[in-house]
Design goal:
Layout: H1 6-32, H2 42-70, H3 75-98, H4 104-126
Transmembrane segments: 6-26, 47-70, 107-128
Subcellular location: Membrane
InterPro entries: MAPEG-like_dom_sf, Membr-assoc_MAPEG
Length: 129
């Protein structure tokens, strides 16, 4: 049976999402003429943090997903964590871009991201035994 590379699929979608967040940061820097930092602009800080937070979590989770995939994890587990990560990062970024302070989008986005992180971590540990 032919194996479809699941991690590659979600990695591609997440790469496109990261590019979008990168463009938002670049546009924000150009329009506000800010070369470094946030220039004291709390809205722009949210955009920067959405981009940075994505870069902090996504690589590790994709590595865990790839390890699980190499170890022949159930495709349902891989798709569930891939969808949770993708939706979690999009919702979280939306919350950071549109709200200062806590928002349901940020909380839901982090819960989905943490679910993918914990789920894949446990999946990989279980493969050891």
């Amino acid at each position: 049976m032919l194996h479809t590379p699941i991690t590659a699929f979600y990695g591609g979608l997440l790469g496109i999402t990261f590019m979008y967040l990168s463009i938002l940061v670049i546009k924000g820097r150009r329009s506000a003429k800010i070369s470094l930092g946030d220039g004291g602009n709390s809205h722009f800080l949210g955009i920067i943090r959405a981009h940075a937070n994505f870069a902090e979590y996504v690589p590790l989770i994709l590595i865990l997903m790839l390890i699980a995939e190499i170890n022949l994890a159930h495709t349902g587990v891989l798709h569930a964590t891939g969808v949770a990560l993708l939706i979690g990062r999009i919702v979280h970024a939306y919350g950071l871009k549109h709200h200062s302070g806590a928002s349901w989008q940020r909380i839901a986005g982090m819960m989905l991201t943490f679910g993918a992180l914990i789920g894949l971590s446990v999946q990989n540990i279980v493969f050891l035994y």
